[in-house]
Design a protein that fits this description.
alpha+beta, Methane Monooxygenase Hydroxylase, Chain G, domain 1, 2 domains, four-stranded antiparallel sheet, 7 helices, rod-shaped
């Protein structure tokens, strides 16, 4: 946000940072007076070392220009912190896509949700920054020189590029989530197909076993002759094998397996 006053300017922006491979959002506070500049940052101290190095070097623009250029340098450095984070997220998305191709599991789904949360947090942090830079570019109170406004346009282009990458990664993470659900559904369908085939094969076998498993008296005239036949038991097993092989061949011709 930006809060202009009569003789000073107050700016607050969110700065992303990657700590232990986890996204964190820190705040940068800038109080700008015509004669001095005060900054307060809640994140790591070494983030603004490049700006300090330019201030300590002779002949740099940070030394030649005024405080308005220093404001630009700080904002540009804060905004550019998103690029290595986006590169890290892009690499993670590529690795997750390869893992999904190998086979989905719950660990991959957890990683996808974690990346989606980081992308959402990054989007919430950078969405207002575009308006902040746009308001600074308009500069109705003429705080910035004409040359520094050109540099602010570069910051604005960076925010647009970052938002486009964020939206692209957001769509990619959603696509990976849909791909996981599709892969899990296909895997479940394959499992159900195997179980259905096994059940179908055992239906006639169970029917035959049920018939020959009835305890009828062998000396009755209505008794099954196979019960007293010496090769009755091997014959039933041969029948089981023939039926099973025949059904599997039929399933194969139907392209069900």
């Amino acid at each position: 946000k930006i809060e202009p006053y009569d003789s000073q300017f107050f700016i607050v922006i969110d700065v992303p940072d990657l700590k232990n491979k986890t996204l964190s959002i820190d705040q940068l506070y800038i109080l700008w007076h015509k004669n001095y500049l005060i900054t307060f940052y809640t994140g790591r101290r070494d983030m603004f070392d490049p700006v300090l190095k330019r201030l300590h070097s002779e002949g740099t623009r940070a030394r030649k220009f005024g405080l308005d250029y220093l404001i630009y340098a700080i904002l540009d450095l804060a905004i550019d912190q998103a690029f290595p984070i986006l590169e890290h997220l892009g690499t993670q998305l590529e690795n997750l896509e390869e893992e999904l191709m190998d086979g989905p599991d719950e660990n991959v789904l957890h990683k996808i949700h974690q990346i989606k949360r980081q992308i959402i947090h990054l989007r919430r942090a950078f969405w207002p920054q575009r308006d902040v830079i746009s308001q600074l570019m308009r500069d109705e109170d003429h705080w910035f020189s004409q040359s520094v406004r050109l540099y602010l346009r570069d910051c604005y282009d960076h925010t647009i590029q970052i938002m486009e990458l964020i939206e692209s990664y957001r769509d990619t993470s959603s696509s990976l989530h849909d791909l996981y659900l599709s892969s899990a559904s296909m895997r479940m369908n394959d499992i159900m197909k195997v179980l259905a085939i096994i059940s179908t094969v055992f239906i006639p076998l169970t029917f035959i076993a049920g018939i020959y498993g009835m305890n009828f008296q062998a000396n009755s005239k209505w008794a099954m002759p196979e019960l007293s036949w010496a090769y009755g038991y091997p014959m039933v097993w041969c029948l089981f094998i023939i039926i099973t092989i025949g059904m599997l061949i039929w399933f194969r011709k139907k392209r069900w397996i």
